[in-house]
Amino acid sequence: MTTPDPEHGRLLAAFARTVAERGYPQTSPRDVADAAGLSEADFHARYRDLDDCFAALYRHSAALLRARVDAAFRAAGSDWRAGFSAALASALTAVAESPAHARACVLDVSAAGPGVQRERLRLLEGMRGMLRGPGPGALPDVVRDAIIGGIYGTVYSRVAAGRTQELPGLAPALAKFALDYFAISDAVSM
């Protein structure tokens, strides 16, 4: 996915950096524009307010993440469990590669307005689809949501501690955590 214009991309990158440095509540449109080397008028020509900029960053980041995760899942072939494991590893690596975006999209998202919260929920609901699993033994939504919550909580704690670089190494344990629910479900349905 490409950004519509170079200034849009500069503003999104500046937003992520500024929020990582200051936190979302302490960030202003002026701060973002200054960090991008643009005027506040340039900021407001593209975004209604800071939440609108945050929603744009979240949509952009989520689209990039989804494309990367989907490619990893497909590359694993017909083995659903291998696909899920590869997709999870890809997602954790992507988060680790961009600590500033991780801080904004994982930590500071809670301080944002309803538009940003909707983007976050869309991303998390999309993750639920990856946990559909093979065959008729589908897990109930509440269980899939609990698995996502457990993985998200682990990511959140690493990002909050400034330890995003550890995330890729957690992929095997987190994949096992998630996939073990399917083994239990398969055993119960037999």
UniProtKB/TrEMBL annotation:
Residues of the HTH tetR-type domain: 5-65
Keywords: DNA-binding
DNA-binding region(s), chain positions: 28-47
GO molecular-function terms, A-Z: DNA binding
Presence of the UniProt keyword Oxidoreductase in the record: no
Residue spans crossing the bilayer: none
Pfam family, one: TetR_N
Name recorded for this polypeptide: TetR/AcrR family transcriptional regulator
